[in-house]
Design a protein that fits this description.
heterodimer, A: alpha+beta, Mth169, Chain: A, 3-stranded antiparallel sheet, 2 helices, 31% helix, 31% strand, B: alpha/beta, Rossmann fold, two-stranded antiparallel ribbon, 5 helices, 25% helix
Chain lengths: 81, 227
Amino acid sequence: MRKVKIHITLKEGVLDPQGKAVQNSLKSLEYNNVQEVRVGKYMEVLVEDTENIEAQIDQMCDQLLANPVIENYSYTIEEAV
Amino acid sequence: MKFAVIVFPGSNCDRDMYFAAKDQLGEEADLVWYKEANLANYDAILLPGGFSYGDYLRSGAIASTSNVVEQIRQAAEAGKPVLGVCNGFQILLEMGLLPGAMLPNEKLKFMCHYETLNVENADTIFTKHYEQQEKIEIPIAHGDGNYFCDEETLQQLRENNQIVFTYEENPNGSVGNIAGIVNEKGNVLGMMPHPERAVEALLGHDDGLRLFQSILTNWREQHAINA
């Protein structure tokens, strides 16, 4: 078994109103050095070991987990305990 | 003419869509549960608004992987009219039948009110009963209606006259004030505003009815030619 940890982030240039709202909240808590907040998604996917696991994960991300029009993704693959 | 209204778990404008096609337009219509759908005998496909699968992952993303999607794709390829409203539009985007993607509204609020739309292209099978640049009143009801596409795609949409409706006053941050677009072939329309909620004066406005009448007129013309 492998544990795939996937991070999905909004592409540069795509407005992130949620990130902006969080940033403003941090400001109102007086974290004045915060320059920007971008909100993304994190997923953990447990998969059985297969050959070409990376190609499969890429496909999953392109097909469903991320929307390539607005999002980028990156992931790490770990041995599942 | 026979309309199929596809019902997903979480659809909530399916009955309004049915009402528009069946009672106001006066044609045949069926509510079709997405798992049991056989779309071969329908002349047009209507994807209603709502929150299919609770908007999990992204609005429309989960519905875009269901089995019925292949049939919707085939109907679109065969040139049948496919109309996606609100969540239906989001599903068409996630399916890749229309370009772009939907983001949360700029102000992060769910909005539910009438908007004035400009008819940017009155020469489609969905808009032939409107005048070019006519202003019509159609309600919106969405949280994720902020249409996004890159510059290049926007340019293509403009060059091909694929932008069908724009907002007179942009409520949600959509690029180019876009409220509705068609595919290149012109038989798949996605729009965030709800024409099916404005199909009789008693409901406030009936500007939406002409969209359904346009589909019917076009179908009759084609039918007459084929016969």
